[in-house]
Amino acid sequence: MQTNHPLTSLNTWGVGGKCSYFCAPKTVSELRNEIKTQLALGSLYILGGGSNVLIADGQIDASVIHTPGLNGISLRRDTLCGDTIELTAECGVAVKDILALALKNDLGGVEFLTGIPGTLGGALWGNAGAAGESFAQCVKIIETIEKNGETRVWESSELCWKYRTCPWTSDTLVITKCILSLRETPRKNILNAIKKFSSLKKGQPLGRKTAGCVFKNPADNTAGALLDRAGCKGLRIGGAEVSRCHANFIENVENAAASDIFFLGELCRKRVFEQFGIDLEYEIRMLGSFEKKE
Q: pTM value?
């Protein structure tokens, strides 16, 4: 365990302050022990690859558990279904590594992960996906640690898979590992699907300091289109700027503070609400507290 640990280098926006306590377990057993210790100290956050999260500036009075050290991944054939392969991965495995392993072994079912950053735990927590496809179609088993410190095993049918919504209740604290059910698929079909999902990323500010899409798409519309029509592209507060190529991304263009990004997001939400009566919901998570300006 470390105290007053800086978090700036552990998120894709490159912002944020220090947390009171920090640990990076290498095994699920270590994770479970750290959770029991940290819960006794107060607020606890789980941090994976650092995408899709905005970390507050200054001192954050909380414990942070960093999961990328939990990176075990393996394949085994499903004995009950000959053409199905089970991919078992721990929560800290990078999403891109899951896709790469599936492609290497001619396994289809996770092509929707193309271009999605971060770790498996975070992707599952937010039900990441694209073009209507998500984990609901391939998850077999998920193991979690609950707030009472107990391990729980979930079947996919027990979870409520909704668009960009966490399928767990408030009693669940962290995902430890997941079993995905994949099927042997001709490589050309997998590559074609990857190309299709990759094409959906055109126009996004790839390679820039962002955290992915800031807002969820509301029903029958897209956040990017609403933000664009509200004149948000190019808006800037401090070192943060709404991307000029896709309005649902905020870029750290010049040593932005986390507060710059937060207040820029609030300005964008206000513009969309005033013009269209739609209250955009954040897709990103907040780590730490932010005070809204009136």
A: 0.89
